[in-house]
Amino acid sequence: MAFVKDMLRMWAHSWKRFISIAMITLLGVAVLTGIYAGCRDAFRSTDRFFDAQGLHDVQVLSTAGLSNGDIAALRKVNGVAKVQAERSQEVTFDLDGRKSATMQEIGTNGIDQPYLQEGRMPKKAGEIAVTRKFIRDSGKHIGSRLTVTPESASSDTSDTSDTNGADGTNETNGTDEAPSFPTKLTIVGVVLDPQNLSNPDGYSAMTSFRSTATTDYTFFAPSDGVTGTLCTSATLLVKGAAAESTFDESYENTVKQVTDRIDGTVKTDRQKARRQELLDAGNRKIADARAEADKKFADAQSQIDANRQQFNQQVDQIVSMQAGAAAAGAAANGANAGAAAAAGATTPQLDETTRETMRETIIAASPELTQAKQQLDQAQSQLNEQKASTEQTLKTKENELKTSIPQVRWYVQDRQSLGGFSALKSDLDSIQSLGNAFPIVFLLVAVMMSLTAMARMVEEDRSLIGTYVGLGYGRLAVASRYLLFALLACLIGGGLGLIAGFLGIPAFLLVVLQGMYVMPGLRLEYDWLYGSLGIALFVVGVLAATIYACVQEMRQTPASLLRPKAPRAGSRILLERIRPVWNRIGFLGKVTARNIFRFKSRLIMTVGGVAGCTALIVCGLAINDTVADLGIKQYRDIYQYDLMVVSDDSDASAMRTKVASDGRVTSSLDVRIESGDLTVAGSGDGDSGKAGSSGSESIQLVAVPEKHLSNLGEMVTLQPVSSGILGTSGVGKTGSLKLDDDGVIVAQSAASALGVKAGSKVRLTNGDGVQATAKVGAVNRNLIGSDVYVSETYYAKLFDSKDAKNTKNSKSSEDSEALTWNAMLAKLSGSDASQTDYAESLEEDSSVMKAVSCAHMADSFKFDLMGAVVALIVALAGGLALVVLFTLANTNVSERVREMATLKVLGFFDREVHHYVNREMMILTVMGVILGLPLGRLVGGMLTMALNMPSLYFEVEVKPLSYVIAAVATMAFALLVQLFVNPVLDRIDPISSLKSVE
Is the Cα torsion angle 811, 817, 823, 825 positive or negative in sign? Predict the structure, then answer.
């Protein structure tokens, strides 16, 4: 019992050490669990929401639409739980200029169900539900009416009909029709699209660099009023996928098994079958058109024949009358009247030649008959010409049918292809990667500080330990006094850390996340396993340090422990050997130098602890500086142009005319911009950059006219880059990179994510979905977006090559020579504000699809989530620095109580004692700061390398001000600690402190 009471008194006396260990554990566990818990809560709530709304696991798109046969084939795929046929239509409407929207039918099979936020779901024809983004932009509300105009052609289907209807269309067996929605609409509800959780009311609206939407808005309509049996897509749910977390690798593997089956025989067979259906439908239309034309021609020929027969009968009557009259006259001049009577009683018989001659004579003599004959001849001639022309047209259509109907292509996509899903996942993954790295530093610092504190605690009780061991107490029992002390401090600190880690930090992160994404049903959850392991990790580390400290002392005999520890033997330090310097140092300066360098353990612990905390602060500020400069570097340094204007192919000429007529452009470059993909297949042969690397990245494919390749460098800064270490990269000389016909130039943001380098082979997909293998000529410095530059000639070579996939659908060589330059890069006159206003005014023009001002993008680029996490990390690192300095300062004082008492006896005033002790701590702190600044840059580089996010490359940047802030903050913490340490020095009693320990 006395042993326990003494242990409790010892614990109470060492409350400062207890608080230090508890605080370090609190901070470490909070960092370890907090970021993880915040991301996990977001992952779980989003996964529950996706399951509740039935977000599709797989989506199948086709360039020719999907028929009932396609849907039936998908249902038969092993592993498919549900298939839902989707019908949609792109429409336009007027909202401060032309805007586009996708009319989406609300599925009846429970897949991709919109989440109702306000009002009710549409049920009748003409009713729609819209997103909150549309409500915000349009100013409309529930009950408002809207009129839309269907697009003339849908990009999801293939329509090659002509005026005769003699060709292939989107119809299956001649009966399928493209979807059509009502055009007069009434808003009855506001919904959240599960495919896009972006918060339109939050501050994420400016992060448009990752926007992948092809239309401005999505309108959801019921099946009532929707016509057409052709499907624009099919969405699938995979068996067993709902049981997995959508963000885990196990989910991806489950879905991949089904997508691989679809990509196998199903996709190939249905592509061929669908194209054959289109060919059969076209052939039937040609046959129907021929039959209909033959019938019309036959009817016309019958009419002409009937009219000609009637005309001939009329002429023959006149011929007969004239022949009879001539015969009667001849008989009247004859010899006997009987012969005359006989001649008048019968019609004279004329041979065919005579009759035909008489017909021609009669027709020629009568203008009316002449005109009638000409009309009959003209009608016959026109009919013959029409017959020949129609037959020629039909034969031409028959010959052109196979080439006019392109190869049908299926696109099998999973959730990764959804822009909203991939953006959320990449944001959370990047934050989670930071959460996995920083706790390591906290753990190392915690172990170091625990070792320092517990070693001093054990050393202070040296004689007491010897007494207990001499009295027969086992070493384990004696060591339990300190082990239980450290364990209790860890458990209390860890428990508080769990509260902060599973409540405080996640609540902060989720507030930031909800400013970027809408996540219904979000709640904080506790993970018993992870929380327990988090505490256990720090308990093991601190107890290991405590055990080491106990072993170091208790391996001596009780007699040795009862005697005071022998003072450290005097020795010279390196500075003493440098006589010119040492001789100029004062007495107290020499004492300080000896105290610092003679006690190596204290030097290492103090400098290491301060360096670690300083490094954490620098690392956080480095990430902040890197993110803050992304927009400026990209849109002011890399992009030299001020404006990018994009139009539809049909409006390209009108767009250029509009921009030219405004007179704002000082120089420009016409290009072709397409949305595509860059894919690297892991082969391990070195052709794909990193051995075995794989992945895909959405890109912006920029084709440059052959005659203006040299002008690209005037619009975009072309600098070759090579992979560096610790977040750095080797950047070549500006202007040393040229675009040629031997390869493409890939943006650094895409190359870094996929492991691509100069000389690699990649698979490019252009805007038409045509794929080809391209050589990477160089990697260009690029931070935001994934641009791939290609020359006009190399573009034609890639996508018209026999080696290119789906070549039957690619442009002919004649067409490729005249690419439609649907975009313009331009330099503008005027201020940044005027350039932004001009870009906004251009977007209101009907010929302009998108106008982007680089000045506006540079000023508005934000990455709020990363900034919030960096602020959190810097705050926690500052707290750790404060605790570390407090622990080290108190340990330093406790080790030197007799020394301080001696100084007081010698006549040192309190202020002089303060200066004597604090000067050593300040010097050690400065040494730690000097070591921590480059260390922070090193750690920051490694962390930014781990942040592989879509369309972003983090070029590590640490501003001088950040180094100053880190150094000043650490020194400020050291000064703050002095305010707590000075009263302790004042309370040292020289008399009691100098009593003999014996």
Answer: positive
Task: List the one residue out of 571, 591, 570 whose CA is nearest residue 900.
Answer: 591
Residue 767 to residues 65, 280, 745, Cα–Cα distance (Å): 17, 28, 17
| Residues, the chain | 998
For residues 638 and 951, give the distance between their C-alpha atoms in angstroms, rounded to a whole number: 15
Give the 3-state secondary structure of residue 913: helix
Residue type, 495: G
CA dihedral (749, 755, 757, 763) positive or negative: negative
Q: 128 near 220, Cβ under 8 Å?
A: yes
Token pair recorded at residue 121: 């779901």
Query: Residues 709, 739: contact at Cβ < 8 Å?
Result: yes
CB-side exposure of 824: number of CA atoms within 13 Å? Answer: 27
* Measured distance CA(247)–CA(428) in Å, rounded: 10
Helices of type H across 629-711: 630-632, 652-662
> Considering only CA atoms, which of 864, 48, 118 is closest in space to residue 515?
864
Q: Is 902 exposed, middle or buried (0-12, 13-18, 19+ CB in 10 A)?
A: middle
Residues 6 or more apart in contact with residue 749 via CB below 8 angstroms:
782, 783, 784, 785, 786, 951, 952, 953
The 3-class SS string of 286-309 reads HHHHHHHHHHHHHHHHHHHHHHHH
pLDDT confidence of residue 169? 35
Q: What angle do CA 22, 26, 32 make, to 5 degrees?
A: 145
Give just the sign of the alpha carbon dihedral 580, 585, 587, 588: negative
Which tokens hold the place of 904? 């007081």
d(CA 558, CA 465): 8
d(CA 224, CA 232): 17
Element (H, E) at 61: strand 58-66
Residue 564 DSSP symbol: P
Distance in angstroms (rounded) separating the CA atoms of residues 380 and 842 = 58
CB 573 within 8 A of CB 593: yes
Query: Which tokens go with 208?
Result: 């448009």
CA dist 328 and 325 (Å) reads 5
| 937, 622 Cβ separation under 8 angstroms | yes
Phi, psi of 127 (to 5 degrees): -90, 140
Q: Is 938 helix (H, G, I), strand (E, B) or coil?
A: helix
Pairing of strands 695-704, 787-791: parallel
Among 430, 419, 396, smallest CA distance to 35 is for 430
Rounded to a whole number of angstroms, the distance between the first and last alpha carbons of the chain is 26
Contacts of 245 (CB under 8 A, 6+ apart): 43, 44, 47, 251
Cα-based angle 893, 454, 925 (whole degrees, multiple of 5): 45
In whole angstroms, give the CA distance from residue 764 to residue 803: 13
Contact 63, 57 (CB under 8 A): no
Q: How many Å apart are CA 388 and CA 265, to the nearest integer?
A: 45
Q: Which residues contact 110 (CB under 8 A, 6 or more apart)?
A: 54, 82, 84
User: Could you identify the residue written with the tokens 């992304």?
Assistant: 630
Q: What gap in Å lies between CA 664 and CA 657, rounded to an integer?
A: 12
Residue 524: phi, psi to the nearest 5? -85, 135
- CA pair distance 14, 19, nearest whole angstrom: 9
Tokens 């050490």 appear where? 17
Q: What angle in degrees, to the nearest 10, is found between the helix axes of 367-404 and 352-365?
A: 100
Taking CA atoms, 610 is separated from 452, 927, 973, in Å, by 14, 8, 10
Point out the residues of the chain with pLDDT beneath 50: 153-174, 203-213, 335-337, 339-345, 682-694, 726-728, 801-817, 998
User: 3-class DSSP state for residue 210?
Assistant: helix
Could you give the CA distance from residue 789 to residue 138 in angstroms, rounded to a whole number?
A: 37
Residue 95: burial class (beta carbons within 10 Å; 0-12, 13-18, 19+):
middle
pLDDT at position 919? 86
